[in-house]
Every structure is written in C-alpha cells, then in structure tokens.
Amino acid sequence: MQRLAWGLIGGGQGSQIGPLHRIAAAVDGRFVLAAGALDADPERGRDFAISLGIDEDRAYGNWREMLERESARQDRVDLVTVATPNALHCEITTAFLDAGFHVLCEKPMTMDLAEADAVVDAAARSEALCAVNYGYTGYPLVRQMRAMVRKGDLGAVRVIVAEFAHGFHADAAEADNPRIRWRYDPALAGQSAVFSDAGIHALHMACFVAGQNPVRLSADLVTAVAGRELEDDAAITLRLEDGATCRLWTSAVAVGRVHGLTLQVFGEKGGMRWEQERPNQLHWTPLNGRTQVIERGDPDLYPEAEQASRITIGHAEGLPAAFANLYRDLAEVIQARRDGREPSPGTLDLIPGVIDGHVSVAAVEAAVESARGGGRWVDVARPHHNAVGVQGRT
Ligand SMILES: NC(=O)c1ccc[n+]([C@@H]2O[C@H](COP(=O)([O-])OP(=O)(O)OC[C@H]3O[C@@H](n4cnc5c(N)ncnc54)[C@H](O)[C@@H]3O)[C@@H](O)[C@H]2O)c1
User: Within this chain, do residues 204 and 177 fall inside the same structural domain, yes or no?
Assistant: First the structure.
C-alpha cells in the first residue's frame, strides 16, 4: 500500500502534543511525515523538521510558505495536522481547507463561535475532510461504550456524568508562572479557560458515546484562585437532543486528581463507567444485575472496540494508540477517496469532525453566557450546515 504524505504545523521541539501526533501517525505505517512548519521560530522549526527526516525543501519556516509551496507540488501532502496554539487554528485550518487539503485540527477547533462558523463554512466549500482531534474517542473501550449505546444495551440514555478534573493549577503561589498565567488571560486564552481546554473533551466524549449533541445548558463557572480572569472550575448541566441530561464537572484546582477524564452513562437497562487513567477496564452494571468488568481485548467486544485494540489483553495500551486509531481511520478515508471506493463501513462515522468542533465551541460560548446570567438556561447554537466534510452527529 502506498504511504500517504503527512504535514504537521506546530508540534515543534518541546511541545506537549507534537510527539503524540508523530507517534500516532507513524504507528500503522500509513503516513510518512513529509512536510512541516513546526515552530513559531522559523529556524528552530526547520532544524527540528530536518532532524525528524523531513527533506530540506519541505522543512518550512512558516505555515504560509508551506501552504504556497505544497499547493504547487504534484505530490503535495495528503493530510495536514494543525497543532499550534488555539488562536491560530481557524486561520490555518480554513486556509488549508480552501486549498483542498484534508485537515486534522487540534481542539478547541476555534477561539469563538464566529470562527467556528467560518471553519464550518470552509469545510462546506471544500471537498476536503476536516477532522478535530478528540483523540480520546480512539480508546477501544470508549468505542465499546458507544457501540453498547447504539446496540441498545442500555436502553434510552437518561443521565451522563462527565468529568475532566485535574489539580495542576491549584497552587495560588504558582498563579503567576507564565506557563500557567496565559491560560487565564482572555487576550490569549479566549472567553473560557478550563472548560475550553479540558472540559470540552469530557463533553465531546459524552456526545460521542450517547450519539446526542447538546441543545441547551446551564453553567456555573468559578474562579477559585484569586486574581484569575477566567474560570478554573465549572459545573455545567446540559440537555441533549434525545432527552438525556449530561452533568459535567471540569476543574484545574482538583488537588489529587491527575488526568481525571471519566465518563459514566446511565440508561434504562444499565449503567457503565470508564476512567481514562484506567483505560483498559469498563465497568458495566445491567439493571438489577452485578457489576462486570469488561477488559479491552475481551473476545466478545463489539467490532468497533475490537478493531481499535492493538495489544493483547492485560498489557497496557494508552493515549498514543488511541490517537493512532484516529490517524488510521483518516488514512482509510483518504485512501478510499484516492481509490474511488467507499471507506470501510463505519470509519467516517468514528472520526470527530467539524460539526463536533463547532458543538464544543458553541457550548463554551453558551456556558459563558449562562454563567454571566447567574446560571440561566441558554440554547447551544447549532451550525448552519449539516452535511459537511467529516461530520459528527448532527
Ligand atoms: N487533543 C488533546 O488531547 C490535546 C492535548 C494537549 C494539547 N492539545 C492542543 O494542541 C495544541 C498545542 O498545544 P501544546 O500543548 O502542544 O502547545 P505547546 O505550547 O506545548 O506547543 C505549541 C507548538 O506550536 C508552535 N507554534 C506556535 N506558533 C506557531 C506558528 N505560527 N507556526 C508553527 N508553529 C507554531 C510552537 O513553537 C510549539 O512548538 C493546542 O491547541 C492544545 O489545545 C490537545
């Protein structure tokens, strides 16, 4: 099979998320890192790109140069990942979509709803795919939960409790540390801090598993560390489109929590619980029955989960493998388009897309408005296009 050419923007040396993308894209051998504009500093970016094996003439000093020169090539990159800080996502993603490149954009897709509308419009104009890196959906047991809901194992979903709470910004003495301070500065972070950064992962996972998007919400945003302008803790109740309620807690001051992304889903016929720190076990309790532990790699998982599982049962499997599932799905869809065939069934549906990106940004905007109004219920804006690019549940 021919390898696909992959381009990366951001994710330079020392970045947090860059190494994960590079590992994930390489795992299945379907992408080769062919081009990049990896750093805010052009020299550093070029040097690092060359050290990773990118040819000198495709180690770009900035993303505009990459756009121009890749657009002119016959063998241009098949997929561009945008892993820069948030404020650049909209401009870069729309520019590459408009030039016909498939894009995987980091979350949050944009800084605000107006920008999210602009990306949705660009995806609607373009033939290209627009995916958003809600990479936690690549965990096999998250896909198992989604399949269980779809197969009706839970009956109607009634209540979801979604959490993404950590304690890394709890120390008031560290509030002025520049690596932390910018996250609570509206000029750099936008209108929300912890919900926009962490909480939207929990929200997206709830929507992905339940197959429902939020229609309205009530939010309580709290600034626990004095002097911060944006929230470091939030409790949000959301009503989803098919009637489920999602109660979401996200925090950056939850001392003792590390990477506390967890999801509990309660339906008419049973309940289930999954924690990202223990990703290989899913607790499932049928109504009036005993709690069972479903292991990643068990022989009777649904196909979506079985196909996402890469290592034999009992061995650790984690975030790089989850992200790799997203890259594998993208490779399948891009290759299918090249071959003029349909992608393998269900693949497109598993990829978080531009609608999912929009849903999250719209929820952030609604939460800020709700909190300012003392928690009043606010509608979550819907995108005005429904069937675009790689789409989520609309
Ligand atoms: N999906 C996830 O689970 C997840 C996890 C962490 C971060 N993220 C997202 O990834 C993005 C990057 O986060 P990070 O923690 O890696 O940030 P970071 O600050 O660690 O790294 C950002 C990188 O982007 C580069 N950069 C900045 N401006 C650039 C430009 N104009 N052109 C090219 N490169 C540029 C920087 O030089 C740096 O290498 C953010 O949007 C963040 O929300 C997602």
Answer: yes
What type of residue is 140?
A: P
Q: Is the CB of 87 under 6 A from ligand 1?
A: no
Q: Which residues pair with 35 in a beta bridge?
A: 7
> What is the span of the domain harbouring residue 151?
139-314+348-379
Strand partners, 378: 217
Q: Which of 89, 112, 136 is the last residue of a domain?
A: 136
Q: Are the beta carbons of 268 and 156 closer than 8 angstroms? A: yes
State the total domains in the chain: 2
Helices (H), 273-318: 303-308
CB 328 within 8 A of CB 25: no
154, 265 in Cβ contact below 8 A? yes
* 325 within some domain: no
333, part of any domain: no
Most ligand 1 atoms within 8 A of CB, residue of 9, 15, 47, 64 to mutate: 15
For ligand 1, the distance from its centroid to the CA atom of residue 9, given in whole angstroms, is 9
Q: 154 and 262 share a domain? A: yes
CA 81 to centroid of ligand 1, rounded, Å: 11
Q: What is the CATH number of the domain that holds 298?
A: 3.30.360.10
Residue 253 CA to its chain's centroid (Å): 22
> Is residue 59 in some structural domain?
yes
The four Cα atoms 232, 233, 238, 240 give a dihedral, to 10 degrees, of 70
Å from CA of 293 to ligand 1 middle: 36
- Same domain membership, residue 278 and residue 193: yes
pLDDT along the chain (394 residues), means of 10: 93 96 97 98 98 98 98 98 96 98 98 96 95 98 98 98 97 92 92 97 98 98 96 98 98 95 98 97 98 97 96 94 98 96 95 97 98 98 67 36
Same domain, 112 and 143: no
pLDDT at position 179 is 85
pTM of the entire predicted model: 0.96
